[in-house]
Design goal:
The structure is a single chain. The chain is of the alpha/beta class. It folds into 2 domains: 4-105, Enolase-like, domain 1 (2-Layer Sandwich); 111-334, Alpha-Beta Barrel (TIM Barrel), CATH 3.20.20.120. Helix content is 33%, strand content 23%. The protein has helices spanning 56-65, 76-79, 86-104, 108-111, 131-141, 156-169, 184-194, 211-220, 251-254, 257-269, 283-291, 303-306; strands at residues 4-20, 23-36, 41-46, 124-126, 146-150, 173-177, 199-203, 225-227, 246-249, 273-276, 298-299, 312-313, 316-318, 321-323, 333-334. Helix 6 runs parallel beside helix 7 (184-194) and helix 7 runs parallel beside helix 8 (211-220). The radius of gyration is 20 Å and the shape is globular. It starts with a strand and ends with a strand.
């Protein structure tokens, strides 16, 4: 019997509106993948990024027009060829890895030869809000050891004051992410003002496509520079040599586990640090990413923190440290409705 695939849209209402420099959402929309060989089912999730012209609808449409033609889930090179758009490939990649792990009776981290004890601590992201809401979110987060704060909107003074107010109440590590919201000049100015607040790094300060702009910022900033929108896959990294300190790897950008591992090893070879990121997503995609987190320096796998009622369980957290499930495959489970 061949492989069968079903795709179901998944709506994930959020605890708070999630605002970044270019968009805002109150409900995250992803696509749930189920791949079956007739005896075993693998579960995956696609987290399309509108910034790159992808959506749940485009993912569904791709597989309506391009059916699976192979019946062997182990033929990953053929099943996950690079002609498949990244978001569509991500969902299929995760489901196939889950299916293979279940067939072999091993968790994904074991199939990849990774040590589950070496997972990093994840950051907890605070979206852009007014000062009062930002501090209220900070209170809800409590003593989580790492924050990532979204910036990129408002005046330079307002953004610096946001970080100052957080640092006045918070002693843990702070990372910032401007999501392409600054110019080279404003980035240099703001980062100079923020240096005294012990910022671990700044993610994507300026619009993608200007490596020399990133280089100019890096040369004038005490705060390390990490890319996101400038680094989609392993192929992008050669253009960033000497321009940044690290890159953000996301399954949604790389098309799943295989692409993410390729990007991680490429970044290592080029002397770049690596953050493993996520979208606002369920525990399916977050757990898949967590399985490869022993390979990276920093983690931002906080999607399950941001949703109200995740229909799945999987990765868990101990003082922010990612704890991987030991069940075969991804190890995610559907929650039973009460």
């Amino acid at each position: 019997m061949g492989l069968s695939l079903s795709i179901t849209p998944l709506a994930l209402p959020l605890k708070h509106p999630f605002k970044i420099a270019r968009s805002e959402e109150t409900v995250a929309r992803t696509a749930l993948f189920r791949v079956s060989d007739g005896a075993t089912e693998g579960i995956g999730e696609s987290t399309p990024i509108a910034r790159y012209g992808e959506s749940v609808e485009s993912v569904e449409r791709y597989f309506q027009e391009n059916h699976l033609t192979l019946d062997d889930p182990f033929r990953l090179d053929d099943l996950l060829n690079e002609d498949i758009p990244p978001a569509a490939r991500e969902g299929l990649d995760l489901a196939l890895h889950d299916l293979i792990g279940k067939r072999l009776g091993q968790p994904l981290y074991a199939l990849l030869g990774l040590d589950p004890a070496r997972t990093p601590v994840t950051s907890f992201t605070i979206g852009i809000s007014d000062p009062e809401t930002t501090l209220r979110k900070l209170e809800e987060i409590g003593n989580h050891p790492v924050l990532k704060v979204k910036l990129g909107l408002g005046t330079a003074r307002e953004q610096v004051e946001t970080i100052a107010a957080i640092r006045d109440r918070y002693t843990g590590a702070i990372r910032i992410d401007a999501n392409e919201g600054w110019s080279v000049e404003s980035a240099i100015e703001i980062l100079r003002e923020l240096a005294k607040y012990e910022i671990e790094f700044c993610e994507q300060p300026i619009p993608a496509g200007s490596p020399e702009g990133l280089r100019a910022i890096r040369e004038r900033s005490e705060i390390p520079i990490v890319t996101d929108e400038d680094s989609l896959t392993a192929n992008d990294l050669v253009h960033l040599i000497g321009c940044v300190d690290g890159v953000n790897v996301k399954l949604a950008k790389t098309g799943g586990i295989r692409g993410a591992i390729a990007m991680i090893h490429t970044a290592r070879a080029l002397g770049m640090k690596i953050m493993l990121g996520c979208m606002v997503e369920s525990a399916v995609a977050a757990t898949a990413a967590a399985h490869i987190s022993p390979l990276v320096d920093w983690a931002d796998i906080d999607g399950p923190f941001l949703t109200k009622d995740d229909p799945f369980s999987g990765v868990s957290y101990k003082n922010g440290k990612l704890i991987l499930p030991n069940e075969p495959g991804l190890g995610v489970k559907e929650r039973v409705a009460v």
